[in-house]
Design brief:
The complex is a heterotrimer.
Chain A: H1 3-24, H2 28-48, H3 52-75, H4 80-85, H5 90-112, H6 122-127, H7 137-145, H8 147-165, E1 176-177, H9 188-210, H10 218-234, H11 246-269, H12 281-305, E2 308-310
Helix pairs in contact in A: 1-2, 2-3, 3-10, 7-8, 8-11, 8-12, 9-10, 10-12, 11-12
Chain B: H1 2-29, H2 33-55, H3 62-102
Helix pairs in contact in B: 1-2, 2-3
Chain C: H1 3-24, H2 28-52, H3 62-93
Helix pairs in contact in C: 1-2, 2-3
Classes of the chains: A mainly alpha, B mainly alpha, C mainly alpha.
């Protein structure tokens, strides 16, 4: 067994241990913290699998997911006792364990029986890389070869946000999501927000710009911008915007709208929907990515802020 | 020359790994939150710092080296802030609990 | 044993773990975490398929990678919606249980909860 395989086995064992604790921990907060640690370790697995863009996305979105779940666990602390009383009996647990083991074994068998040589789209992606002029193959696939998936994903993000907003009580519609955070303006959190937010914005924009030729891209950059926005909001330096604000809704719609407009333009000027004319491919894609990053940042931040809880009228 | 750099890398990264281990042992074995925070900051400062110093000779360019140092500084900043926030919360909770304990309770 | 095999089996075990947690955890928030584990294990299988499609010059097949990035973002937005639903349910009823109980307006009858 080579040294690299031994390292990978250790990494897989650690990840499995953390995942087991995420399921088996007696306290919900411990389970959620374990899940966040699992997400970060998973980013290491992605690097070991040579998927650096996915590792960046996993590390960034894992952090946001952790904030979301920890906040929910804190609010639901009062229901812990009732939940403990409702644990299923041993018969259900054994049956569930057998079913899970069966499913895991079936999927593991499928993985071990994957066809050799493996079918792959990598040669096609590498051969057509000249169509966009960008060197990062994953960005090429996301923005050019399978742009339809990305457009639909933007729309799904918007739909999730509308779903969350629709959960507002009637008298709170149009108000600000979440509670107003009151941190000490001379305290540590405000200091961190003032110091880290500019750095984070630079890192986010850099990751968007660099995604053309190196690992990175609009999703990773947008997630970092959303994290900075959340940090500033949690430090009390800025309030969440009112969801009835027209400017906010414009920013939210800008990403998918621009993407769809360029796509429809492809029907007239190019070969098909979402086909870019060869000469303008790179500037068009970069323009779409800038709008996408803004929309993703605002959407992810608002997804975390939740349903409006303060009414619009003062 | 490159052998010397490799030896520096191995020694530094091993030292950093030792401090990570020490921080994790402290996290598991120390009795309360404040002492555990103290142990964790050793992993942040010394552990990550030694690992970064060990990786600097292997960085390809000045820019990569500066990026590594920036990573260390950012982790230091966020780690210090989080430790302060947790410590504040622990003290506020302890103060609230001890003042509640001093309140006159119902007669036994 | 290649890296793809090790992590593929790891992903399969994570899917099994998530399924077990989904069935047996009574707290809905932990069911959401377990469901995320199932999704994450599935993404690992995608990553293994991508790794096996490596070709000279490219470390792994970019098409499954793009699918996984899309999947991670969509899974996060679904989790956010699920958590918002759960919190609103808790706000409206004061409990976070999925067990069906008699509606409060008919509390006078003796049907078991």
């Amino acid at each position: 067994m080579s040294f690299q395989t031994a390292l990978e086995l250790v990494l897989a064992a650690v990840v499995l241990g953390v995942a087991i604790w995420a399921i088996a921990a007696p306290e919900t907060s411990a389970a959620v913290v374990s899940y966040v640690a699992y997400g970060l370790l998973l980013a290491l697995i992605w690097v070991a699998l040579d998927a650096v863009d996915v590792a960046l996305a996993e590390a960034a979105i894992g952090g946001l997911g952790g904030v979301l779940l920890l906040g929910a666990a804190a609010r639901l602390r009062a229901t812990e006792a009732q939940a403990k009383a409702e644990r299923p009996g041993p018969a259900v647990c054994v049956a569930a364990a057998m079913l899970s083991a069966l499913v895991a074994a079936a999927i593991a068998a499928a993985v071990l029986l994957l066809p050799v040589p493996a079918p792959t789209l990598a040669p096609a992606a590498a051969a057509n890389a000249a169509a966009t002029g960008m060197a990062n193959p994953v960005t090429n696939v996301l923005m050019a070869f399978r742009a339809m998936d990305t457009v639909l994903e933007k729309v799904v993000l918007l739909l999730a946000l509308v779903g969350i907003w629709s959960l507002a009580p009637d008298n709170r519609w149009g108000g600000n999501p979440g509670l107003r955070h009151q941190a000490d303006p001379r305290g540590v959190l405000a200091f961190l927000a003032r110091l880290l937010a500019p750095v984070g914005i630079v890192v986010g924009v850099y990751m968007l710009w660099n995604g053309a030729d190196h690992p990175g891209g609009a999703f990773q950059g947008g997630t970092i911008l959303a994290a900075m926005w959340l940090l500033v909001t949690m430090a009390g330096l800025m309030d969440t915007p009112r969801i009835s604000s027209r400017r906010l809704r414009l920013v939210l719609v800008a990403g998918p709208a621009i993407f769809l407009t360029v796509g429809l333009g492809g029907l007239w000027f190019g070969a098909a929907f979402l086909a870019y004319p060869q000469a303008y491919a790179k500037p068009l894609i970069l323009g779409i990515e800038v709008a996408m990053t803004l929309t993703i940042a605002v959407t992810l931040g608002l997804l975390l802020a939740g349903a409006p809880e303060r009414s619009a009228e003062p | 020359m490159s052998r010397l750099l490799d030896i520096v890398t191995i020694v530094s990264v091993s030292g950093g790994a030792f401090f990570f281990l020490a921080g994790s042992v402290g996290l598991l074995r120390f009795p309360d939150t404040l002492t555990r925070l103290h142990a964790l900051t050793k992993a942040d400062n010394l552990g990550l710092g030694l690992v970064v110093i060990g990786l600097l000779p292997q960085a390809g360019s000045l820019r990569a080296g500066l990026e590594l140092i920036c990573i260390w500084l950012l982790v230091l900043l966020s780690g210090a802030t989080i430790s302060q926030l947790i410590a504040h919360t622990v003290r506020a909770t302890d103060r609230r609990e001890s003042s509640a304990a001093h309140m006159p309770g119902p007669p036994l | 044993m290649s890296s793809a095999t090790v992590f593929g089996v790891c992903g399969a075990v994570v899917i099994g773990l998530g399924l077990y947690g989904l069935i047996t955890s009574p707290q809905p928030l932990r069911k959401i975490v377990a469901f995320n584990l199932v999704g994450s294990g599935t993404f690992l299988i995608f990553g293994v398929v991508a790794r096996r499609g490596a070709v000279a010059g490219l470390g792994s097949d970019p098409a499954p990678q793009a699918l996984v990035i899309t999947g991670i973002v969509v899974a996060f937005s679904a989790t956010a919606l699920a958590v918002a639903l759960l919190l609103r349910f808790f706000q409206a009823t004061g409990s976070a249980t999925l067990r069906a109980s008699a509606p409060p307006s008919t509390a006078s009858d003796t049907s078991p909860g």
